Amino acid sequence: MKKAKLLCISGIDGSGKTTISRILVKELQGKNKKACYIYGRIIPIFTRIGIFFGKAFILKQSKGAVSKSYKDYEAHKKSFLKNNILLRVLFKYSFLFEQLIQIYIKVVPKILFCDYVILDRYIYDTIITDISPNLEMSSQDALNLTKKYLKFVPKPSMIILIDVPEEIAYRRKTDIPHIDYLKIRRKLYLEVFMGLKEDDTGVPIYIIDGTKDISELILELFTKLEGG
């Protein structure tokens, strides 16, 4: 049985990943290709419980002082995790464990029965967006963790990072708590993906300018996907 081409599209919130992924699927389907869209980043289920109680505990410890300030809340949260080694371990591996489960449930069946699987985010995004900033991991640590866990998931045929300046992404979204949230993650994305490119993983990796016109982006991705 022929396996699908697995295209992973990553980037900070507001980079246009979801819009581009869905249009790309429609374009492929219009060419009589069996193309499937999957949201590939973790959707917290079990970890959501821990997040809820952790947030409540942090707010209680701070006596509500950080509830209205993103920067204060983030500083308090990171300090809390930094000083609790067991919680750091639980935080990291609960996210990774649940992410792996979801990948095998959602992605593997589609690979077997579709021609193209377009992944709107993947394990990279969980590590870069959810784990690394909260644990104050360096980009090198994030890269090492990414390479380690890529061994346990289906290998992509191509990886795309849609890069946009955080100021533009911030204007596009209404649910981002602070522009610093994007700045931290954009830096991690660029450094981790450049590290993956330099390591020559055998998977084509492209960093694409997300400020281009959407039709131009789709054409560029379509050309790369068909060529790959």
From TrEMBL:
Keywords of the record, alphabetical order, are: Kinase, Repeat, Transferase
Gene3D superfamilies recorded: P-loop containing nucleotide triphosphate hydrolases (3.40.50.300)
Q: Where is the Nephrocystin 3-like N-terminal domain?
A: 3-39
Q: Does the keyword Kinase apply?
A: yes
SUPFAM superfamilies (UniProt xref): P-loop containing nucleoside triphosphate hydrolases (SSF52540)
InterPro entries per UniProt: NPHP3-like_N (IPR056884), P-loop_NTPase (IPR027417)
Keyword set includes Repeat: yes
Pfam families, from UniProt?
Answer: NPHP3_N
Q: Looking at the record's lineage, which domain of life comes first?
A: Archaea
Molecular-function annotations in GO: kinase activity
Protein name per its UniProtKB record: Thymidylate kinase
Write down the species: Thermococcus sibiricus
| Taxonomy of the source species | Archaea, Methanobacteriati, Methanobacteriota, Thermococci, Thermococcales
